[in-house]
Amino acid sequence: QYATTGCSLTLHHTEKPKHEAICEYRPYSCPCPGTSCDWEGALEAVMSHLMHAHKSITTLQGEDIIFLATDINLPGAVDWVMMQSCFGHHFMLVLKKQEKCEGHQQFFATVLLIGTRKQAENFQYRLELHGSCHRLTWEASPCSIHDGVAVAIGNSNCLVFDTATALLFADSGNLGINVTISLC
């Protein structure tokens, strides 16, 4: 199905649906969480789409930045999104707050590469929360935007913490997360 966009595999008809679901050459969906954007396109067009359709997303340059999530006490499910550019690639930083059990909210922080799964294997990211006497750190390889935030959370490939922990590290309702991207 994706031969016109670069896939060169020839498979038996029974194997085709499984491959098409994960094929790197299938169109990329808009990776922006918390929106109902129906955009689809080539990997090379994702950043252009994000810059034009989702102008509120800030992009910071460098391997080591601070992702500031403001007003973490907002009620309900909330997504904070930021872009980080380094090593010639773009990374989407996502902090997601959602209710897991009745009245129990959790935060999920992860990094997605605007790129393929194979490219994502070349990077590591570290998320750090700092407090006066506390530090919480998570290190992992980023997921590709092909997989998305839901897959990262579903696979526990993210930093997870509850509201009490968020408040421990927050300053006036704002949460700063140090994000460091490195090459493997």
From TrEMBL:
User: Could you tell me the keywords of this UniProt record?
Assistant: Ligase, Metal-binding, Transferase, Ubl conjugation pathway, Zinc, Zinc-finger
* A Pfam short name: Sina_ZnF
Please write the reaction equations for the catalytic activity of this protein.
Answer: S-ubiquitinyl-[E2 ubiquitin-conjugating enzyme]-L-cysteine + [acceptor protein]-L-lysine = [E2 ubiquitin-conjugating enzyme]-L-cysteine + N(6)-ubiquitinyl-[acceptor protein]-L-lysine
Q: What class of enzyme is it?
A: transferase
| Domain SIAH-type positions | 1-55
* Keyword Transferase recorded: yes
Query: Which spans of this chain does the record mark as coiled coil?
Result: none
Name the source's superkingdom.
Eukaryota
Q: What is its EC number?
A: 2.3.2.27
Pathway in which the depicted protein is active: Protein modification; protein ubiquitination
The domain-related comment in the record is:
The SBD domain (substrate-binding domain) mediates the interaction with substrate proteins. It is related to the TRAF family. The RING-type zinc finger domain is essential for ubiquitin ligase activity.
Function description: E3 ubiquitin-protein ligase that mediates ubiquitination and subsequent proteasomal degradation of target proteins. E3 ubiquitin ligases accept ubiquitin from an E2 ubiquitin-conjugating enzyme in the form of a thioester and then directly transfers the ubiquitin to targeted substrates.
* Descriptive protein name: E3 ubiquitin-protein ligase
The species this protein belongs to is Rhadina sibilatrix
